[in-house]
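User: Structure please.
Assistant: Input sequence and predicted structure:
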Amino acid sequence: MVNSRNLYISVLVVIGIVLSCTSRPKPVFDSSKDYKLSSGAITIMTYNVENLFDTEHDQGKSDETYLPLAKKNEQIKAKCRAENRGYYLEECLSKDWNESTLDLKLKRLTDVLAHVKNGEGPDVLILQEVENRGVLEKWRKNYLSRFHYHPALLLEGPDERGIDVGILTRLEAVPPLNLHPLKFIANDKLKQSQISETRGILEANFKLPDGSLLTVLGVHLPSQGNPREMRRQALEQLNKLREGLPKDRMVVVGGDFNITSEEEAQAQFFSDYMQKTWGVSHLMGCKSCKGTHYYGRNESWSFLDVLLVSPNMLDGKSPWVALPESVRVENNSLYQVNRFGGPSRFSEHRKDGVSDHWPLAMEIVKRPIAKIPVMVDEKDKDKVDKDKTVTK
């Protein structure tokens, strides 16, 4: 006869295993629910969508990993072996990035947007790790029709993997669209042999509802696999680009800056250098947030993804102002959170997973128009309503 106590324990163990496999942990933090959307607000969001590739090989780019197995001939496999080692080699040889896999990826990304701005999605979406305009247009046309985005904005850059920065928006674009290449100079902290081609800064201009002009700069700085000096020089070039714009221009920068919390503690790129000339999203808001990316190896959170705002959008000197209290991580989709409570990277073999980054969002609103009393001469005061006002 089976001991009843042992049977009871066995049942509990089985239940625990089932729950661990089926239940989904809640996000570590969810600041998006702490902020109530303002009427007439424009939502701006930056999102690294992690390897959004199409299923075709782009000539001259190292996109072999993201091809269907049916297209991975001996020539493709040879390039995999020549350019990859260990895990990345196995992934390049065995990953089946076919139309079904891409469809799953796009559906999950769409679900992320559907949880932003009460289901409307962001008004301006700055994207990183997009292979080309074609795959971005495929996403927009076939999955995002309800969001009413204009045709995608993306200019191909020289990145070796072929990933670029793109923008989707409901705002009216004002030409031209520019891609500013990043140029690095060798010095005592950066050898010439360490310099490689990377993503440039995408510049786009948009008309806000009142006709005001907003400049959006999309960035994806060199990864942590590159010397810190490359990120420092990239920030320097970003600031120079801002200096070249009209002084009264409203500017928002969004992107993956690839600056870890460890690097920030040492170099103070945001807290010292950038904060002198910009409002930095996670320094002015998102106080309950831990970060947008989690490094499991050293168990640390980082704000790799950042929004920067020109000072005139914070001091009330521009037609539209940024709301620091609106800065938040958007992680409400069930696909975004892994079993450890961090961002869940995409895998076609799991029920969760969409990107190893969480998007960061913020609102801008039309600056309230101050009212001042009408100055009325004493002899005319009976002819004018005392409470009459005019707008400034």
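Residues 1-33, 386-392 have pLDDT under 50 and may be disordered.
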